[in-house]
Amino acid sequence: MIGYLLLSICLFQTIEARHGVGKPPPQRKWMTLHGGQPEVIASGGYSGFYPHSCLAAYDLATDISIPGTILYCNLHFTKDSDGFCVSNINLQNTTNIDGLDPKGAKTYNINGQDVTGWFGFDYTADFILQNVTLRQNIFTRQGMFDGAPIVRALQILEDKYNKPTRIWLNIEYDTFYKKHKINPEAYLLENFHPLPEFISSPEIGFLRSIKPKIGNAKTNLIFRILEEPAVEPTTKQTYGSLVKDLAMIKSFASGILIPKEYIWPVNHARVLQPATSLVQDAHREGLSVYASGFANDNFLSYNYSFDPAREYLQFFDNSQFAVDGVLSDFPSTASEAIVLDYLLNDYTMYSPLIISHNGASGDYPGSSDLAYQKAVDDGADIIDCSVQLSKDGIAFCSDRPNLLRTTTAATMFMDRATKVPEIQELEGIFSFDLTWSEIQSLKLGKFVTLLSFLELAKQKAVAGLLISIKNAAYLASQKNLDVVATVSSALSNATLDKAPKQKVLIQSDDSSVLLKFKDNPSYQRVFYIYEPISGAPAQVAQEVKKYADAVFVHRDAIVTSIDNFCQNFTNTIPAFHAVNISVYVGILKDEFENLIFDYLSDPYVELATFNSLKVDGFVTDFPATANMFVRSSCATQGSPYVIRPVEPGYLYVAPPPITEPPLLSTADVVDPPLPAIAKNLPTQSAAGSAPTSGPPPSPPAPKSSSTSSVTVGAEGFILAAIVALLTVFT
């Protein structure tokens, strides 16, 4: 516990230096009950990161959330009637109490259900406050900060700057506590002067009892509604039936706190259903509506594209209603959603390019027609095509030549499975071993030829397009396919090779490929650096400059993380900017599993971090999220709420040594010249159209070298088929 306290002191001093009280957002009319902006309610503080209800969680919530954020305490009691904040009446999973008193487990009937565990009211306040510590009770979250002391409700009346806070106390089991000679109502009336701004309970009897006793206090009494089948202790009716009688609820409460699914139902397929009329009905009765159950690391409806801010926006501003507040484990994301909602603008300041990765591949199968259309609709500046070739020379867009994992190839062409060590270690079914008609028979969505892609880019008038070329040397030497010539011809036929209105980017991890496009000043050449690096010596950066105008690096080439916490920013961006090379970073994804802990399961924090480091482009599966960020003044100083970039070591300092990736070397940059193509290679009249000559020659017989393609044996077919079928159909 001592170590935890020391860490917390250092952290809070750092936070104090970083964050001041922001100015309130501009005034606007919301569709809430009284027209004000929705409230942000921090559930147990910032419980998405720290253990629920610890002091660090409450302090982080006030520091990085919108001014006026409300601190929510789920109030429970000791044997001697002292109140403390904890997420559950059963302390077993939320604290270390089972280790302190291994034989202390008891069983109680709580609201008709037998619950076995450890309970605060079996212990004195001295024992609870001096010995028991909190731990993260959602085991998919990191537990680095377990060991935080229990917090009394009275401790959060002021923040660490000794300024008053806004408090919400939830009395969860009034009837049960009274049976054990503990009176929550008396505790509130005797200890809080004035009473907290919000008091809630899922028990009607408690709210009816305390209402006449609060007098002129500006306290909002809120009826907390639980899941529909649960039974309310006073009336013995289900919450699902009680919520239909809003006039009755108005007789003892000024508002309701209700699971978000009552408002926007989500079906078993995680698809959003039409909204209910609950919010409008409650507002007509004069009831405020606060929605609960928000967390960035929940499995969100697919309608939100894994973007937690979009879920909040669905409840704040949907042209029908706005809830009056949200109870969230991640209050900073709720805060940014409020500001994102009305600070969208046409930006004129510096902003990174938004470059799609296989279109909007976070929402639709990558490189499909649907993915490209959504990328355009979602505001991508640059749409991309990673060019693959069929056996008969048709160029099309696909993330990889191996079709085994992304299509139904395993069900139709397992006899074509081969190993190609130059491309990947495992066997696959590769596009260059299938004809275009065979590829079109696979299920993906709709395959997009390079020709169709170029036509789409011109028709939609996007700012630019990116063509990615990989495996050119292998295709030339082993398959007699010239991907460079195919791309060049397609761009020429589309009149994109001479002073095009749209920017054309040519990307490759092979410097010899980029060299082929050097003589056309209309193209920007992008060198793809797959491996993590920590920077580039000046002479190596100059070597890159011979081949490329920009580099595309992965996130770990910019942010060094240990134990999934940011520890350092590399010198990659400054090294390339010093020689006037742009830096694009990717692949950015909204799913919280792809984010280091510092980003608080929020893709906007990652975007803000890279933006602060002056990257020149975001390569993303979710262009809509990047577009929302760059169009919002949330990304700029002077905004009423600024999305803060992370600082290395701010949340956690890893023990030394901190090992960084190697520097880029000349050997990583310079590739051998591309091999020649056989003279009888068919050429295409346009990428995506049929070859002008007859069928291509058969590829040369496999060499004895271990680097040549090898056909998989029958046993491999069976195993690969099983794996592939599981991949495709699960």
From TrEMBL:
<keyword id="KW-0378">Hydrolase</keyword>
<feature type="compositionally biased region" description="Pro residues">
    <location>
        <begin position="693"/>
        <end position="702"/>
    </location>
</feature>
<dbReference type="Pfam" id="PF03009">
    <property type="entry name" value="GDPD"/>
</dbReference>
<dbReference type="GO" id="GO:0008889">
    <property type="term" value="F:glycerophosphodiester phosphodiesterase activity"/>
</dbReference>
<keyword id="KW-0319">Glycerol metabolism</keyword>
<dbReference type="InterPro" id="IPR017946">
    <property type="entry name" value="PLC-like_Pdiesterase_TIM-brl"/>
</dbReference>
<feature type="region of interest" description="Disordered">
    <location>
        <begin position="684"/>
        <end position="707"/>
    </location>
</feature>
<feature type="domain" description="GP-PDE">
    <location>
        <begin position="38"/>
        <end position="338"/>
    </location>
</feature>
<keyword id="KW-0732">Signal</keyword>
<feature type="domain" description="GP-PDE">
    <location>
        <begin position="352"/>
        <end position="630"/>
    </location>
</feature>
<dbReference type="GO" id="GO:0006629">
    <property type="term" value="P:lipid metabolic process"/>
</dbReference>
<dbReference type="GO" id="GO:0006071">
    <property type="term" value="P:glycerol metabolic process"/>
</dbReference>
<feature type="signal peptide">
    <location>
        <begin position="1"/>
        <end position="17"/>
    </location>
</feature>
<dbReference type="InterPro" id="IPR030395">
    <property type="entry name" value="GP_PDE_dom"/>
</dbReference>
<protein>
    <recommendedName>
        <fullName>glycerophosphodiester phosphodiesterase</fullName>
        <ecNumber>3.1.4.46</ecNumber>
    </recommendedName>
</protein>
